[in-house]
Specification:
The complex is a heterodimer of chains A (115) and B (115). Chain A has a single domain, classed as Immunoglobulin-like, CATH 2.60.40. Chain A is 0% helix and 50% strand. Chain A is built from no helices and 11 strands. In chain A, strand 5 and strand 6 form a beta hairpin. The radius of gyration of chain A is 14 Å and the shape is globular. With 115 residues, chain B is mostly beta strands. In chain B, the strands form 3 sheets. In chain B, strands 2, 5, 6, 10, 11 and 12 form a 6-stranded mixed sheet that branches. Chain B starts with a strand and ends with a strand. Classes of the chains: A mainly beta (115), B mainly beta (115). The interface between A and B is medium-sized, with 31 and 26 residues.
Amino acid sequence: DAGVTQSPTHLIKTRGQHVTLRCSPISGHKSVSWYQQVLGQGPQFIFQYYEKEERGRGNFPDRFSARQFPNYSSELNVNALLLGDSALYLCASSTSRQEGITEAFFGQGTRLTVV
Amino acid sequence: AQSVTQLDSHVSVSEGTPVLLRCNYSSSYSPSLFWYVQHPNKGLQLLLKYTSAATLVKGINGFEAEFKKSETSFHLTKPSAHMSDAAEYFCVVIPLSFGNEKLTFGTGTRLTIIP
């Protein structure tokens, strides 16, 4: 069974451009979350989607947006890129239960470099 | 509100000696606590998880952690370090509530193994 897949693996963009990152969750997982990991720091929560609805949003500017599709895959969009957006972007998929999350599986990430 | 504090940014141990990575948490709810490992240029892999069952949790690769509510701690240990354990380790907390899957990461502990 395939794990969480993210594309592309690496990306170089210029300041001011727009970028779209993609994530396919594990089959059967309806929840997808996005995290930003700046070099030398722990991942920071950006968004969580469950059944195509936004369930949570971290402390990121409106330049960041996301959506989830009927097949539970997800896109993260970032507009007007800044140098500070350079980071590893991680996608996690999980199953939501009444007692809360039991495990989150992460993809390998997309390394975004803004020049 | 929830947070985790990893008390050491770097830990160095000799191969074959015990490993101790320290984590303290703060949570308004009964938390789930995880430890993830990240090898260079890799995604995050779950080592072990605590979800209000047994307080001593065993994970993969010989790691274990003990949940101590009175000390609000969830330290990660391993009896004998191996060269392959060299990596970044993250302590993670989430609330035990349906639909809320925001993972809050610590700042990470870089483990170095001395031959």
